[in-house]
Amino acid sequence: MTARIGVVTFPGSLDDRDTQRAIRLAGAEPVALWHKDKDLKQVDAVVLPGGFSYGDYLRAGAISRFSPVMETVIEQARAGLPVLGICNGFQLLTEAHLLPGAMLGNDHLHFICRDQKLRVENAETAWTSGYTAGQEIHIPLKNMDGRYVADEYTLDKLEAEGRVAFRYLDVNPNGSLRDIAGITNEAGNVVGLMPHPEHATEPLIGTGRTDGLPFFTSILKKLVTA
Q1: Secretion signal: which residues (predicted)?
Q2: What is the model's pTM?
Q3: In sequence order, what are the beta bridge partners of 164?
C-alpha cells in the first residue's frame, strides 16, 4: 500500500488540487481533507496548500488557524506527523506556532508572481531529503504577504540550528529577513515555504522544470522506508 498524504482545503484555498496532482505524480495517494473535520483519515503526512484562506482577513492564516482540522494537525505534528505548509500554508504554520516568526505584507506592497531562484540550505528534513545542500532550484512564487520576519534571537537560532530550509537567490522578492524563503522545525517534520513546489512538477507547466517534485518524492521515500 502506498503512502497517503492529506491535503487540507480551507475556504479560499487555491492550490489544493494542484498539490493533490503533485502528490499523485510522486507516486503517493492524495487524500482530500476538509477544514471542518478533525479526522485526518489516518494519513501519513499532511500538506497545507496555498491560497487565500478566509480571504486573508485579519492576517493571512489567522482565521484558518482555528479551523477544527488544525487542532488535530497541531497535535499530530508535535507528535511527529510530517506537515508541509506552502505559501498560505506557511503563513498558517506560523499562526499555529508550529514554526517561529510571522509573515507580513511584501515590502513593496504589491502582489508578486514570478519564477524564483532558491538555494537549498537544509536537505535533511522529511520534505527536502531529495535535494542536496547548496543546490539551486527554480520554483514559482506568488504572494502578497510573503515577507518572513522574526526577532534577531529567533533568526540567529534558526541559522545556528540549520533550520533555514531555503533562501532566495539573486533577488529578495518580498523583503524577507536574511533572504529566508522557508524554514523547518527542530525535528525536521514540519516545513514551511512561500514558493509553490506543486507548480514545478511537470515540464509543460510552471517553470518548465520539475524542481518542485523532490518535495513530494522526499516524503514518499521517508514514509515507505520508515
Answers
A1: none
A2: 0.96
A3: 183
